[in-house]
TrEMBL record:
Belongs to the peptidase S11 family. This is Penicillin-binding protein. The keyword Cell wall biogenesis/degradation applies. It comes from Lysinibacillus contaminans. Transmembrane segments: none annotated. It comes from the Bacteria. The lineage of its organism: Bacteria, Bacillati, Bacillota, Bacilli, Bacillales. Keywords: Cell shape, Cell wall biogenesis/degradation, Hydrolase, Peptidoglycan synthesis, Signal. Residues 33-258 form the Peptidase S11 D-alanyl-D-alanine carboxypeptidase A N-terminal domain.
């Protein structure tokens, strides 16, 4: 199973390293539909941008932040089965801020792996905060690792203030920067597996089933989007970093500032499906 997963990830990575068409070729072939999102970038298999909409504008990344949180946690962890406890203060802090939660309870003993799934699948702030503490000792020190990685990846428009993506005027990025991060992250087999998982059951007492915030918004749609990370704050709008597949070819599509909210129609997902149909 692990060999198969590694092979899948290597195939995706190889696609994104192989250039075969120019931007002009794609512009002639792809008619991008009108998007709900105000910011967008589409990368082809080589990592070349084939469509952009306000790609360099400064945006609030919301829970797309958790892509960085997860990949840094993976790279900094030497044991994904290491156990830690969910603190009552963590639950109280993020419940008070109405943040999205994975569903852990105070006192739960969980693994780093559980927390990684909790960060990406249901987009839990309880998971990201606990990851920061167990890996770096504090959110502040973990955020420093995130900003170091952003610098390493050439994310020049990006500055992280927290690990969850809750709004802060200084917590900023651009969809071009997020596409650099996302492309880097999916080449990691552990991250890729988590990103493309529809649901996950932890081993905490009583077991906790987590469902993907992306796939639950795609009822009846199969195959178009292989995986992705959603996000939302009122300031960021609906956001999505998605991995698309069409006719054996792979694309990365990152959008922010779509109209709507978490209770409205999933306009960010509609944008991704519309672009997939146009490919």
């Amino acid at each position: 199973m692990k060999k198969l997963l590694l092979l899948c990830c290597l195939c995706v990575a190889a696609f994104f390293l192989y250039a075969n068409k120019s931007t002009e070729d794609y512009e002639a072939e792809i008619e991008i539909p009108l998007l709900h999102s105000q910011n967008a970038i589409l990368l082809d298999e080589s990592g070349q941008s084939v469509y952009e909409k306000n790609a360099d504008a400064i945006i609030y990344p919301a829970s797309l932040t958790k892509i960085m949180t997860a990949i840094v946690a993976i790279e900094e962890s030497d044991d994904l089965q290491k156990h830690t406890m969910i603190e009552a203060s963590t639950i109280a802090t993020f419940t008070a801020q109405n943040a999205s939660m994975a569903g852990f309870k105070a006192g739960d003993f969980v693994t780093v792996e559980d927390l990684l799934y909790g960060a990406i699948i249901p987009s839990g702030a309880d998971a990201t905060a606990t990851l920061a503490n167990v890996i770096a000792g504090s959110e502040k020190d973990f955020v420093s690792l995130m900003n170091d990685k952003a610098h390493e990846l050439g994310m020049n428009d990006t500055h992280f203030v927290n690990v969850s993506g809750l709004h802060d005027d200084a917590h900023v990025s651009s969809v071009r920067d997020i596409s650099k991060l996302f492309r880097y992250a999916i080449e990691n087999p552990i991250f890729y597996k988590i990103l493309t998982t529809r649901s996950y059951i932890t081993a905490v007492p009583g077991e906790l089933t987590m469902s993907s915030t992306l796939f639950t918004k795609m009822a009846g749609v199969e195959g178009a989007i292989l995986g992705g990370k959603t996000g939302y704050t009122p300031e960021a709008g609906l956001c999505l970093a998605s991995l698309l597949e069409k006719n054996g070819k792979y694309y990365l599509f990152v959008t922010t500032n779509a109209t709507g909210n978490v209770r409205s129609e999933p306009f960010h997902v509609e944008d991704a499906l519309s672009v997939h149909a146009a490919l």
